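Running log. JK asked me to keep both predictions on one page so they can be read side by side. First protein, sequence followed by its tokens:
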Amino acid sequence: MANFLGALALCFCSIAMANNEFEAFFSSLETLSADFTQQTYNDANTPISKTSGYLRFERPASFIWQTNSPIEQTLLLHNQELWLVDTELEQASQRAISELKGTPLYWLINRPEQLKNLPKYTHSKLGVNWYQTQQSNQLSFGFRNNSLHALRLTNTLGQNIQVVFSEMILNPNLEKNTFALDLTNDFDIIRSF
């Protein structure tokens, strides 16, 4: 009986610790630097595309999501301006910041205490604790060793997207020009709102 109670207590402690992992990570986050690999899967769970790049973030609301391979694209938020830059097409389009709602980046920008309906711990698999939002895109955050390890979501086409982070550094010193929009005169500028 004592072994059963001990196992039960350990189980509850693990769940309580897991439920605090999401809030603890995002509450302590001021800046972030990470590399990522993003894979998209069709509804049969077959990989259909793979990209890689890096993420830089600074509170209150500056980030750059840069894909380098196979196509160089940048999603940049700074000074309340959201830009999508396609280097190959030499095109930069300014977007409404409201387009971020429902994306993983929305959760980065806002602190847990500013959000309603925080993601809930759902399960652990292969050493990763998963938290799922209540959103229709089934956005989930995966944590390993109290650090953000992966993201999963379903896009509007029903495709599953998984992002796995590496080389993550929490609260690094970032260069002042990290979030500067630097476009040559060759770029077409489109304002979509």
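And the second, directly underneath as requested:
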Amino acid sequence: MREAAKESKREKIMEAAIQVFSKKGYHQTRMEEIAVAAGIGKGTIYEYFDSKLQLVQHIMETSLLMYYEAMGDEERSRLSFEDRIRIMIMGHFRFCQQNKALTRILFWDTEIIDEELKDWSYQIRREKEEKMRSIVEEAMQKGEIRQADPYLVTQIFLGVMGSMLVPVILEDQEFDVAQVAQEITDLLMYGLK
């Protein structure tokens, strides 16, 4: 019971931090503001996190697991490339729409937070690229898509997903995730012709 209460408080701190970070940015946020938003004393935060950097790292690690889960993974490896792409795009957009404040921190603010966090975020991006590249190469080997530079195909795919962050985060646009995912998949698979 005590461990559950501790975990609940940790989550409460993280949720408050996400809201404050997304409104004020990492550098402008003080731990006291997070404590107020969480309804706890400032000292309590330090029982869970040694520093603001450690807090934001924990938020990012936890949320990236949620993000990858939302995008789908190994259980979809038997699906066609087209279906996998569509499901990944849907998962990406659903996650971003349902977690706008978190998405702003994860995909928008990481590089300006801290050099250590910048390196960590770059490593996560490389892992995502490598995973996507292996999916692309597998699809080429199976003849599902034509032969092309796997690196370029991967960058285009990730670029399309990244470019949609602006309408979701900055412009607060709502859209039918399934429909947009299908249209993007069609464009990626069949081009503009």
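Observation for JK regarding the second prediction: The mean pLDDT is 85.
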